[in-house]
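ASSEMBLY PREDICTION REQUEST
Request ID: AP-0331
Submitted by: J.K., bench scientist
Number of chains: two
Total residues: 289
Priority: normal
Notes: Please return the full assembly, not individual chains.
Input sequences:
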Amino acid sequence: MVQYSDTHFNASFAALSDVTRRGVLEQLARGDASITELADKFGMTLTGMKKHVGILEDAGLVATEKIGRVRTCRLGACRLEEEAMWIEKYRQLWAARFDELDKVIEEMKRKEKADGRRKRK
Amino acid sequence: MDAGRESEAAPVKERTTAERKSDRELVVTRIFNAPARIVFEAWTKPELFKRWWVPKSIGLNLLSCEMDVRVEGKYRLVFAADPEPVAFFGRYLEVIPDSRLSWTNEESPDGNITTVTFEEIRGKTRVVVCDLYPSKEALDNAIASDSTGAFPEQFEQLDELLAAPINF
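STATUS: Completed
Returned structure:
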């Protein structure tokens, strides 16, 4: 397990240590792209870009899928982790709101009870 | 049964759940220990709404809150921000007392529609908030625009780390 994480960490670290590969990740965060599109965008050869994408893929940062003659790249598992983290943040915002709402509701209930008693008198 | 009475005496904090229900949809649920009419009132009266919508923990300052809660009525929330205040606004699409509320979020072109349902079960109310985006891309972008914001900073830290001499 430890060994796996170390290997995984080293692969991610190596993958992220290159400015082009970081650019590719930022680009893919905006939307999926083919290797040809990425090569154009970063002004490099198809072979060069394939190599970069291969390193990102080995690190699990990018996933690719070949449809017909086009290989499409998207963010890998890290994207799902990011989404899960975002949803947890979103949940926490609502949970914080709802804890405040609980207080407002308890106050409304108390007030209603008091008003009810006053009316009955 | 005793347990029920006990929990009434000291209300237990209910759990808030959130999930991405589909490509375009986020859903949040929570139970409130009050009848639907009370919970609905807290969502529709601005003086009550503004007391809980912006929890202190998010560190935002609500400057104003206008809500005209009726079909096609408008709302506008203004927050203090630098360099100038930020407004969130839209209009109500559905207003069904004690049961359903729906509004648009028009501050962004790809804004979602928020629908809240109130379901009363034995004196408690189950609230379901659904944020429906116009497309999968719109929701993906909403998530990415927030989370990729952390990228440059992480990369900067990585650059510093890589630039530092390694001592074995």
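REVIEWER COMMENTS: Residues 77-121 of chain A form one domain.
SIGN-OFF: pending second reviewer
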